[in-house]
Bifunctional chorismate mutase/prephenate dehydratase
Amino acid sequence: MDHEYPFYQQQEPQMTDYQAQLEQIRQQISALDAELLGLLAKRQQFTNQVAETKIKAHMQVRDPVREEQLLIKLIKQGQPLGLTPQYVTSLFHVIIEDSVLNQQMLLAQKANPDNAQPLNRVAFLGDKGSYSYLATQKYFSRRPGELMEIGCPSFDAIIHKVETGEADYAVLPIENTSSGSINEVFDVLQHTSLSIIGELTHPVEHALLVACDTDISKLKTLYAHPQVFSQCSHFLAELGNIEVKPTDSTSAAMLKVSEMQDPSIAAIGSAPGGALYGLTPIKSNLANQKENHSRFIVVARKPVNVPLQIPAKTTLVMSTVQKPGALVEALLVLRDNQINMTKLESRPINGNPWEEMFYIDVEANLQDGPMQTAIEQLHGITRSLKVLGCYPSEEVTPTRVAAADALQG
Ligand SMILES: C=C(O[C@@H]1C=C(C(=O)O)C=C[C@H]1O)C(=O)O
C-alpha cells in the first residue's frame, strides 16, 4: 500500500498561497512607490523655488559644483543601503535633468511673458501616435496651457498652419541619429518667416506593430514613413521579400494596419503610438543604431528672448559668395569669436542647384556680445544671412562623478 501521510503534516503550499504572498508584497511596493512620487513632487517644488531665487539673483540655472557635491553625497549614502553608485547616479541624472529643464522653462517664461497662453495650438506631422505627436506631447507637457494637437500631412502644411495663424507652434523633426538630417525640413526653413524657439530630442524606438495574432513569417506587407525605412534598413534587409509601402507619417501607417486587420500586414512605429490604434508589437528595437533619437525644433511666428542664465543655441542660414574658401572664412568668424558650432548642414538653393545654403547651429545666445560681433562680420562676407532663431538648449549634459572618488573619505 502507498505510504499514508499523517493528516496533520503540512500540505504543500498551493499556487493561490504564493499568489497571495506576491500580492501582499506588491501592495507594499506600490505604497512605497506612491511615497516616492510624493517626495519627487516636493523636490520639484523646491527646485522651482530655487529658480525663482536665481531669476532675482541673475544666477545661472546650472550649478555643476552643487550637482557634483550632491551626487557624491548620495553615492556615499546609498552604499550602505546596497544601492550601487551606478544606480544612484543614473537615477539622479534623470531627476536633475527634469529639475534643470523645469527651471529653464520658468526662466524662459519670465523672459517672454506674452507667450503664456491658455491654449497652445500645435501643428505636427501625422496624427496621434506619430513620433512628432509624441515629441509634441513631451515638449508641451512642461509648459502651461492646454495642448490642441493639429496633425498635418506634410511639412509644408505644418508651416502654413503657423504662418496663417491657424496654429501657434509647429514641431518639426530635423535630424535623426540613424538617418541624419531631414532635408525636407531644412528646405521649408529656407523660405519661411517663422523662428525657431525651442528644441528637444526624443527616443525613437521602432517596433513591428500588428493588428491581430500573427508572426513575422506570415508578413507580406509593411507600412511606414520613408524615414523609418532608412533608420531600419538592416532589419528590412534581413526580412527578405516583404513589400514595403511608404506612408506620409508613422500614424498613417498604424491607422492603415489597424483598419485592415490583416495578419500579413504590419506597420513600423512606436509601441505607445501603436497602442493608440490597438496595435501590438511583435518585435522591438528595429533601428540600425541602438541609441536612436530624433531631434525636433519648435517654430513660431515670433522669436523668443533667451535669458543669459540658461544655455542657448542659435541657428543661422547663409549663402556664401562664389569664391574659394568663402565657407572657411565664414566659419573662422565663429572661431575668432570663440563660438562653438554644433551642426553644419548644406542644402541646394531652390532654382539655383549649383549654389548652396549653409545651416549652422551654434552654442551661443543672440544677445551675447561675441555673437553680435560674429553676425555683423558674417553680414560683411556672405551673400545672404538670416537668423532662424535663438532658443533654450534642451540638452542637459549630466554631471559625471567617478564612483571611486565618491566613495573615498
Ligand atoms: C536646484 C538647483 O538647480 C540645478 C538643479 C539641481 C538639482 O536638481 O539638484 C542642482 C544644481 C543645479 O544644476 C540648485 O542650484 O540647487
Observations:
- The longest strand covers residues 352-363.
- The mean pLDDT is 93.
- Residues 15-57 form the longest helix (43 residues).
- Residues 47, 50, 62-63, 66-67, 70, 96, 99-100, 103 surround ISJ (CB under 6 Å).
